[in-house]
Amino acid sequence: MSRDGFGSKIGVIAAAAGSAVGLGNIYRFPCELGNNGGGAFLLVYLLIVICLGIPVMLSEFVIGRSTQKNPIGAFKTLRPRSAWPVFGYLGVFCAFIIMAFYSTVAGWTLEYIVKAVGNQFQGKDLATIEGEFEAFHQVGWKNVLWQCIFIFLTGFVVFKGVADGIEKYAKILMPLLVVILIVLGVKSLTLPGAGEGFSFLFKPDFSKITGPVLVSALGQAFFSLSMGMGVLITYGSYIKKDDNMATTALSVTLADTLVAVLAGVVIFPAAFSFGVQPTAGMGLVFSTLPMIFNQMTGGYIFCIIFFVLLAVAALTSTISLLEVIVAYLVEEVHITRRWATVLASAGCMAVGVFASLSLKQGTSLTIAGMSFFDGLDFLSAKILLPVGAFFIVLFVGWIMGKKWFNTELTNEGKLKLSIKGVIFFIIKYLAPLAIAVIFISGFL
Ligand code: TRP
Hints:
By secondary structure, the protein is mostly helical. 78% of the residues lie in helices and 1% in strands. The chain contains 17 helices and two strands. A two-stranded antiparallel ribbon has the order 1-2. A hairpin with a 2-residue loop joins strand 1 (366-367) and strand 2. The longest helix is centred in the C-terminal third of the chain and has 38 residues, at 372-409. It is globular, with a radius of gyration of 21 Å. 55% of the residues are buried. Bound molecules: tryptophan (TRP). The site of tryptophan (TRP) has 15 residues, from helix 1, helix 2, helix 10 and helix 14.
């Protein structure tokens, strides 16, 4: 059986960047940054992305491409009759967890497209917009409906297959998102009182760097780059034998980080200008943005385009999550792609409903003192992804080893890659150590 592959080089980059760039950059990044000390968080975040991002990403790509398999099949191929496939299963489990709460927010982007088209923000003040966002969460069925529609859309694209499904959409629309973010950033920076938000974002207060801030930054970096649970192993398995994985990883990391920082530049100056607290969580994004559009000429059109692009960005991310589950079901459980997609989507909806409903006021859907939504977010970003990434680098660094890694990374010596030594050193020593230290520091 021949496997689906990405048609062109830009296809791989577009799809992996499509997975990376999403709600994680636009809503989760500002939330985490606002709650974890502003500039200090940004600094730690960037350090983690620079030092660990590319090595961890390459570890996943190499595992995927060398085996041409889904995460579970990949570990089974490389180390048959060992416990390593457990981390593949952990990845599939993690895909469910992330899908469950991510699709909640993804559903909101659809609600906001409808609101934008209906011109429902214009002329309203901050308190009204915030109040309407809050009120929307109280209408459980509406949240669930949008969420299910979003998961259905994801299933539709995944069913159509990798090459023509993912590639086509991501290639054109992601660059457009960057353009619109730049326009919004310029607007935001010229609002009265924007300077304060700018300093909040870029002036690090070193005393704010604590264990929990480090863990948040680590979790956010992995979440944003889609690392630590096998998405990139799966996508790596579609990379061609003569592609340069190092430049692919670099492009994806740069694109993802650019969008996150741009989102920060859009959100924080405007939030400070309008008087939205940096700790406002999701309100920070879903209230500040409509307020910016309210102040812009052509705001009506920009608002619609923005939320459409945000929905597409979310879609290319949910596609990658669903693809992990589907690839597993097709290749390991041997069911048809159609049934795999139906089953995986239904499973995500079943768990996801509880995430959506848990945002109602006075909800009883809580775990460990958090709403179910926050619990799933916490479990995936701060526990499962760091643990997954830790074992992935351990596997590459210590089990498979340097020779295997270099052979695969250099396409059997065809590429030079003078930095491969440094990358492997990080994979073997620095990455596991840094992940372990940060992880432990957050829970002491
Ligand atoms: N990275 C995506 C974002 O920032 C979300 C995402 C897609 C993801 N696939 C993932 C996160 C795999 C962690 C693991 O929006």
